[in-house]
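pinned: reference chain
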Amino acid sequence: MADEEPRDIEMEPESFREMIEHLKAHAPNEACGILAGTDGRVVRVYPMTNVEPTPYSYFMDPKEQFAVMKEMRKEGLSLVGIYHSHPATTPYPSRKDRDLAFYPEAATVIVSFRDPAEPEARAYRIAEDRVTPIPLVVRPRRAGEKSRKLSAA
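pinned: its structure tokens
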């Protein structure tokens, strides 16, 4: 995937809100989760347990992560992205985020709560320590509504 053109990640407003609410609920610590779907389109949000609950770090519970990956395969879904929060810093991958980017095919979505009233979400591809911004688009279900582009390459 490192040589492929980065693709957008798309979410419906309901999935986006679910992700934001999960992350907010764990402030001031980082929280994390998995975004599942197909072809870059998120159809399911899996809030995960952060076994390193601090304001500067997250690490998913390995048993929980294994169970979610198994369920995703059973449902015919793939890993679209991994999300986490930065409670007080910018939505850019930290050194640790880059070191732990074990799924280069998946987007890394980071939500900053520097301004809790206006969370800032950004998406990236991280491969071989190279960070590439990618578009994160919220597309409403109803016809006629405009999509909100949250981050761009």
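why pinned: Helices lie at 13-25, 62-74, 95-99. The radius of gyration is 14 Å.
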